[in-house]
UniProtKB/TrEMBL annotation:
GO terms for molecular function: hydrolase activity. This is Hydrolase MhqD. Residues 24-200 form the Phospholipase/carboxylesterase/thioesterase domain. Keywords: Hydrolase. InterPro entries: AB_hydrolase_fold, PLipase/COase/thioEstase. It comes from Methylobacterium trifolii.
């Protein structure tokens, strides 16, 4: 189902396995609302999938917020777009009858998911962050107790400095989240190991509910 209402162009696939939390799929730069649907089906079979398209264009490529240069974010835009995305999630939950989703974000999508956790933590039940960076230099204090976060970084990632990813993990932990941060022997692109780890982590979270 493709939607143009609720504030963002998006795709929605209803779930057919009771008890699985919905996934909020957040694509990387140049992706769209169809980009991560196969990944979502792989890591959470039977879960409802909600996949919005980023509303910012960079050289014609959709993103979820503006950046000033590679690795340099327009933090005012990060904050504004995180609020818009949280409002979209609330509207989609009402429209489609969804529980709070777990975000599954890659690259730019992982960064806006991290911003959501810090700025509007009520919007998400948890998150799988694939190749994330710290989205804000000076975020507000968030209350993330009870939320679980999986971070998967690449040891040879040319885009995300290792210390930046570690800083994000520490920031989320300090806010009370249960963070698992794994560094894989790979670059910025996703691998089958990412898929397997995300699938196993999501299954474990459901077992803990």
């Amino acid at each position: 189902m493709t939607g143009h209402s609720l504030g963002l162009i998006h795709r929605f696939e209803p779930g057919f396995e009771a008890g699985r939390p919905p996934l909020l799929l957040l694509h990387g730069t140049g992706g769209d609302e169809a980009d991560l649907l196969p990944l979502g089906r792989s890591v959470a079979p039977g879960a409802a999938l909600l996949s919005p398209r980023g509303a910012v264009l960079e050289n014609g490529m959709p993103r979820f917020f503006r950046r000033l240069a590679d690795g340099v974010f327009d933090e005012a835009d990060v904050r504004a777009r995180a609020q818009e995305l949280a409002d979209f999630i609330a509207a989609a939950r009402s429209t489609y009858g969804l529980a709070a989703p777990v975000a599954l974000g890659f690259s730019n999508g992982a960064n806006i998911a991290a911003a959501l956790l810090l700025l509007r933590p009520e919007a998400l039940a948890g998150a799988v962050l694939l190749r994330p960076m710290r989205p804000l230099a000076d975020p507000p204090e968030a209350e993330l107790s009870g939320k679980a976060v999986l971070m998967l970084s690449g040891a040879a990632d040319p885009i995300v400095p290792a210390q930046n990813a570690r800083a994000l993990a520490g920031l989320l932990e300090a806010a009370g989240a249960r963070v698992e941060h794994t560094v894989l022997p790979t670059g910025h692109g996703l691998t089958q190991t990412d898929v397997a780890l995300a699938k196993g982590w999501l299954a474990r979270q459901e077992g803990m509910r």
